Amino acid sequence: MLCKDLCDGVGKRMRIMCRWSARQAQKAAYSICFDPLDGSSNIDAAVPVGSIFGIYQRVTDNGTAGTDADVLQPGNKLICAGYSMYASATMIVLTLGNGVNGFSLDSHLGEFVLTHPNIRIP
Question: Which of 12, 47, 80, 83 is in Cβ range 3.0-4.6 Å of 55 for a Cys bridge?
Fold first, then answer.
């Protein structure tokens, strides 16, 4: 429930519609697909867990409630996608469609710092 509440809160500020939330859906320009705790079934094995997400431009009219069509779009329609990993280090990996970058949480600064620019698969 905490992850859902966080997503709803961020969504309100960024005008992103979380599919399960009808409260702000009518004003949202974007919709988000979000798995708040991916890998949670492996917690007992002491492996990292994380959150995965994808953000789409809405296909239904603003001013109306979002529908499944807003989130059931092909991957090439994604505006942004990424994941965050929670372990001994907290990381966010993000793409806006042109390259992939990794950011690590700097606990002294209290913010994410670019630590893995332009990630590539060899």
Answer: 80
